[in-house]
Amino acid sequence: MTTVRQMFALQELDIILDRVQNDHRKAEHELNNGETIGNLEAQLERDSERLLETELKQRATKLEAESQKERSETLNSQLYGGEVTNPRDLESLEHEHSNVLKLVEEHEAALTEITQKIEDAQTKKNELESKLGEARAEWEVRQAQLQASLKELRVEREGFEGQRTKLTEVLDPVSLEHYEKLRKSKGGLAVARVQRGLCQGCRMSLPTHQQQRVRSGRQTVLCSSCGRMLFLS
Ligand SMILES: [Zn+2]
Fold it and tell me: Which residues lie near ion ligand 1 (Cβ < 5 Å)?
C-alpha cells in the first residue's frame, strides 16, 4: 500500500530535482549566450567604422585645405608680383584672394574639429578594446565554471532520478498518477503538511474529524479546501 509518507518523500525528491533541473537550464542558457561580449564586439565594430569614416573625412579636408592654400599663394604672387597692373583686375584678384583665405580658415577650423573627434574616438576605441579583453578573460573563467557546474548538476540529477525510480517502483500506479496530477495542478505541491490543525498548502483550518483521519494514517486524506494529500509528520 502506498502511504502518504512515501508520497511526501517523493515530493521532496521532486522538489530537489526541479531545483537541479532549473539550475541546469540556467547554466546552459548562460553558457549559450555570451551577451556582454557580443554587445561589446558589436559596439567596437560600429565605433571602428565611424572612426574610419572620420579619418577619410580628415584626409579629404586636409587635401582641400592644401589646394586652397596653394591657390592663395598663387593669387598672392599675382597680386604683388607686379604683372597685373590694371586696377579692376587687381581688385577682382584681391576679392578672390580674400575669399580663398576665408576658405582656408574654414578648412583649418574644420580640420581641428575633426582631429579632436578622431582623438576622442581613438580613446573610446582603446577603452572598449581593453574592456572587451577583460570581458573575454572573465568569460573564459565563467565558461569553465559553468561547464563544471553543469557536469556536477548532471551527476546530481542522475543520482536523484535513480532514487526516484526506486521509490516509484514500490508505489501503486493509481496513487502515483494522482500525485502527478495534483503536483501539476497545485503549483508543485501535491502533499501538504498539517501543522497546528492547518493545511500548509492552503492555510485553511481542518475539521477535527479530518485531522483524526490524517493522524490515523490508514488512508490518504485530501484537504477539503485545496484537495492536496495531507501529511502529518
Ligand atoms: Zn489545503
Answer: 199, 201-202, 223, 225-226
CB atoms within 10 A of CB 227: 15
For 66-115, write each residue's pLDDT tens digit.
999 999 999 999 988 888 888 999 999 999 999 999 999 999 999 999 99
Strand, coil or helix: what is 206? coil
C-beta atoms surrounding 182 within 10 Å: 22
- Ligand 1 centroid–CA 211 distance in Å is 12
Burial of 157 (0-12, 13-18, 19+ CB in 10 A): middle
147, three cell numbers: 561547464
pLDDT beyond 90 at 32: no
In angstroms, the CA 28 to CA 25 distance is: 5
